[in-house]
Write a structure and sequence with these properties.
It contains eleven helices and 15 strands. The chain is an alpha/beta fold and 346 residues long. The chain has two domains: 235 residues, Spore Coat Polysaccharide Biosynthesis Protein SpsA, Chain A, CATH 3.90.550; 97 residues. The chain is globular.
Length: 346
């Protein structure tokens, strides 16, 4: 199987050095199976970082340097366009601050073959968004993958037919959050899923200089845990698909609020809450599904409502929180007793 690799780079030589070295050092990498294409953005004045250019050139890659500044959205798009030009079976997208694990390419090849004709799968992700693992790990844990109605941008790949659908809806906006390429792709995900590893095959080291800064360290990263020289059996954990009629409840408050809602609900529901409360909700209320919201949503119910509506466009989304912050969005409980009675009668 021919798997091309698209790289988006800009102005961070140390990140580029680590990222490309990890690709070349990954188990199963070969020039015959993996062609690498790099789109490199320039500065506002048209100059570019020569050190970054030299790093890729050292590895035999001549970056496609922008003549005028593209920005993150269009530089990622350009990298993908380049990678598809010689008609590979699959393209893996790696931004310059993504470090892949030793067995990442083995996992990608397994998934690219397995799900090629499964059109319920939109992308294969490298970052393990939802691990649900505990130490010590068994050898079976190493190969576990999960299906989620999700799109993760920290190392991902897709096939030509699905790329063409992405291309048709690619963002036309700037690099702000609302029009960021990954947010726009998430909006058009619909019912399609992503295959994600339980143990992450990538991490994001990009604390400095990126458009959307951040550092992603999942609970478990494959490097150091998984020996790529072992014969790893990759497999998908099959879980019951959630009922389409399940309502969505967004609870931004304390755990007491979450507990009261979950306890009183009469039917399985999707509970959207802060990441810090997710695990205990999983354990106490296994009949419900949980969608984790980052801590930056805690004081912004309007943004939380938008995110959950994007995630579940065909479901009723209810924002509920005692002493809510936005009377236009939050159910108007007059007292804690009213709060209890409302959920008791659902």
């Amino acid at each position: 199987m021919k798997i091309n690799i698209a790289i988006s780079a800009y102005n961070r030589p140390e990140y580029s050095r680590r990222s490309i070295a990890a690709i070349f050092g990954a188990k199963g990498f070969s020039h015959e199976k993996h062609r690498i294409f790099c789109a490199m953005d320039c500065n506002a004045d048209g100059s570019f970082n020569q050190e970054v250019f030299n790093i890729y050139e050292f590895f035999g890659i001549v970056p496609d340097v922008a003549e005028q500044k593209r920005g993150c959205n269009y530089n990622v798009k350009r990298a993908l366009e380049l990678a598809w030009e010689d008609n590979p079976d699959f393209v893996l997208m790696i931004e310059d601050d993504i470090i892949i694990s030793d067995d990442a390419l083995q996992y990608i090849e397994w998934a690219a073959r397995k799900y090629k004709n499964d059109h319920s799968v939109n992308t294969i992700g490298l970052w393990g968004h939802d691990n649900k693992l505990s130490l010590p790990l068994s050898s079976k844990d190493y190969g576990k993958a999960m299906r989620k109605n999700y799109f993760s941008c920290w190392g991902w790949g897709t096939w030509k037919d699905r790329w063409e659908e992405m291309f048709a809806t690619w963002t036309t906006g700037n690099d702000s959050h609302e029009t960021s390429w990954d947010v726009v792709l998430s909006k058009h995900l619909g019912e399609m899923d992503e295959i994600l590893p339980a143990i992450s095959r990538a991490y994001n080291c990009g604390e400095q200089g990126g458009t959307h800064r951040g550092k992603a360290w999942p609970d478990f990263v494959a490097s150091g845990l998984v020996d790529p020289d072992e014969q790893i059996e990759y497999w998908e954990e099959v879980v019951e698909k959630q009922n389409e009629e399940w309502p969505v409840y967004v609870i931004l408050g304390r755990f007491g609020d979450i507990y009261m809602v979950c306890k009183q609900l009469k039917q399985p529901s999707i509970i959207c809450c802060m990441t810090q409360f997710a695990q205990i909700v999983y354990e106490l209320f296994p009949q419900h599904k949980v969608f984790e919201l980052g801590n930056d949503f805690a004081r912004n119910p309007a943004r939380a409502a938008t995110m959950c509506t994007m995630k579940y466009p065909d479901k009723k989304v209810t924002i509920c929180q005692q002493d809510g912050q936005d009377p236009k969005l939050v159910l108007p409980f007059r007292s804690f007793q009213a709060f209890q009675e409302y959920y008791a009668n659902l």
